[in-house]
Amino acid sequence: MRLPLAVLVSFSVVFGSCSPAPGPEQNRLTFFEHLGHTGFKFSWRNLTCPTCKALFVILDIALLTDTNEEHVARTAGEVCIRLHLAEERVCRSITELFRDDFIRALQRSLLLPREACALLVGPSCGKYDIYAPWNVTLPGIPKPPVTPPSLPKPGSPQSRILFLTDVHWDQEYTAGTTADCKEPLCCRKDSGFPSWRRREAGYWGTYGKCDLPLRTVENLLENVAAAGAWDWVYWTGDIPAHNIWSQTRTQQLSELTVISRLIHKHLGPKVKVYPAVGNHESTPVNSFPPPFIHGNRSSSWLYNTMAEEWSPWLSEQAVKTLRYGGFYTMEIQPGLRVVSLNMNFCAAENFWLLVNSTDPADQLQWLVHVLQESELKGEKVHIIGHIPPGLCLSSWSWNYYHIVNRYESTVTGQFFGHTHMDEFEMFFDEADKTRPFGVAFIAPSITTYVDLNPGYRVYYVDGNYKGSSRLVLDHETYILNLTEANHSPGSGKPVQDPKWELLYRAREAYALPSLFPADLDTLIQTFVKDDRFFQKFWYFKHKGHVSEPCKDACKTTEICLLRMNFSLFSHPLQCSNCVVLW
């Protein structure tokens, strides 16, 4: 096997880990060096410089012909099988699925063997950073004075916002099949049926490596429709299941269409929905070429269908930028605007960023323009997206942080998903590093993947009146308790029409006066001092289904992640990015 490197790199995009990087040099390897999860034994650091360079020279020569591209793919499939990275069927399917797009991205990246090896093997083999620092340009207009937020007067209007994320509908979900199979996704028609001491898939969903049947998604939409009225909806993507080795464009578009129309059907034509693009919408997963990639390799097949399905909710101008790069902005109400970002342009897993990772699609520069216009008009802005900014590439995260710090009086809400967990990220001022100025709220997933109850979020935001801050005042999390839904008391059979129950209200659960940045920063300090509050957070983070408490190093890591102060790091960020299968 002479040519495994190309797809070993691509495997690192698909099967990742969530472990911290020891230092700034290793932080540069976040795209490539997450091979510890799911049994990876390969390490780029085990290669010598001459060996690495020789292999990449062979790879460069091999990729000059289509015949050798086939050989690379076959060889990579064998590597996957021999290293036991996945079952044989998954290995062969995923190498075939990723082959064309990944190789085209690698060919266009213009990496020389010495540069690739400096990047992969480390500083002992040279110095090269494909994700080198870059800056967006901010206008020369001074930042307005910052006024600390205050609670609205009692009785002031509030907006009630439904937040949906990470549906992950599995068309092949089958009750009664094996819930703990060897493949990355179980509870499916081809998972087989459980033998003795193995768990089986429940009717409404299953704790484990399983996504959801359509009936659970529809039950959710029926429940939230009955729980209305909603002022509007934020929906931050990830529609397809985690069967990333066997997806097709036709399947992805079909699922996008079905879920979009179900949301429209159940919530009605009067409720506006503002969607964002998830990383699972494309196939191969995480594959989002920048707009300068044209033809069949571009994302137009996906963005055009999104534009068609979402046009009842979006303006003509929003549809235009959606077709261009998967992002848009719209006025929600007078004085409030939403910005929907395509966070795939910040993701280390998006191998197209090998070609150019400097502000792909000029999205952040566009964001600056939108925020400056809103500042001049006195608008407040909510930013929505799929991947939280703390999980992005270093330079992208730093620039995003710099932007929202500059426009902190304009950006009054940040809403994300992706992790499937219930958590948040704090933002601290670049000048006064002890002053919290913003919060990115990360909402729990609808899917159960992995080992979770299905859930959704409701935000209460300062409402539509003159002088409204448009800040988040409170939020609620609702879950479907699968233990109860799958086993009705008495009969033991699935409940026919299960109800989604309130898990907690944030201010009530944590005894907070508000959810403003200063109060959430104080809450984190309380987590350090009072373990009861932290364990409550841990329980809520996992949507009421926790196997064991989080203590010692686990607790320290969690609190560190909540307070990840990007402004404390040099440029680029010297912090760990977290690559996950989500």
Automatic annotation (TrEMBL):
Cofactor(s) required, per the database record: Zn(2+)
Catalytic activity: a 1,2-diacyl-sn-glycero-3-phosphocholine + H2O = phosphocholine + a 1,2-diacyl-sn-glycerol + H(+); a sphingomyelin + H2O = phosphocholine + an N-acylsphing-4-enine + H(+); N-(octadecanoyl)-sphing-4-enine-1-phosphocholine + H2O = N-octadecanoylsphing-4-enine + phosphocholine + H(+); 1,2-dihexadecanoyl-sn-glycero-3-phosphocholine + H2O = 1,2-dihexadecanoyl-sn-glycerol + phosphocholine + H(+)
Residues the record lists as binding Zn(2+) 1: 166, 168, 238, 420
Top-rank taxon, per record: Eukaryota
Subcellular location: Lipid droplet; Lysosome; Secreted, Extracellular space
Record keywords, A-Z: Disulfide bond, Glycoprotein, Glycosidase, Hydrolase, Lipid droplet, Lipid metabolism, Lysosome, Metal-binding, Phosphoprotein, Secreted, Signal, Zinc
Cysteines joined through disulfide linkages: 49-125, 52-117, 80-91, 181-186, 187-210, 346-392, 550-554
CDD domains documented for this protein: MPP_ASMase
Record note on cofactor: Binds 2 Zn(2+) ions per subunit.
SMART domains according to UniProt: SapB (SM00741)
Entry-linked InterPro entries: ASM_C, ASMase/PPN1_MPP, Calcineurin-like_PHP, Metallo-depent_PP-like, Saposin-like, SaposinB_dom, Sphingomy_PDE
Binding positions (Zn(2+) 2): 238, 279, 386, 418
Signal among keywords: yes
Signal sequence coordinates: 1-20
MF (Gene Ontology): acid sphingomyelin phosphodiesterase activity; hydrolase activity, acting on glycosyl bonds; metal ion binding; phosphatidylcholine phospholipase C activity
Record-annotated Saposin B-type domain positions: 45-129
BP GO annotations: ceramide biosynthetic process; sphingomyelin catabolic process
EC number, UniProt record: 3.1.4.12
PROSITE patterns: PROKAR_LIPOPROTEIN (PS51257), SAP_B (PS50015)
Main location: other
Function as written in the Swiss-Prot or TrEMBL entry: In the lysosomes, converts sphingomyelin to ceramide. Plays an important role in the export of cholesterol from the intraendolysosomal membranes. Also has phospholipase C activities toward 1,2-diacylglycerolphosphocholine and 1,2-diacylglycerolphosphoglycerol. Modulates stress-induced apoptosis through the production of ceramide. Converts sphingomyelin to ceramide. Exists as two enzymatic forms that arise from alternative trafficking of a single protein precursor, one that is targeted to the endolysosomal compartment, whereas the other is released extracellularly. However, in response to various forms of stress, lysosomal exocytosis may represent a major source of the secretory form.
Quaternary structure note: Monomer. Interacts with SORT1; the interaction is required for SMPD1 targeting to lysosomes.
Family: Belongs to the acid sphingomyelinase family.
The protein's name: Sphingomyelin phosphodiesterase
Biological source species: Takifugu rubripes (Japanese pufferfish)
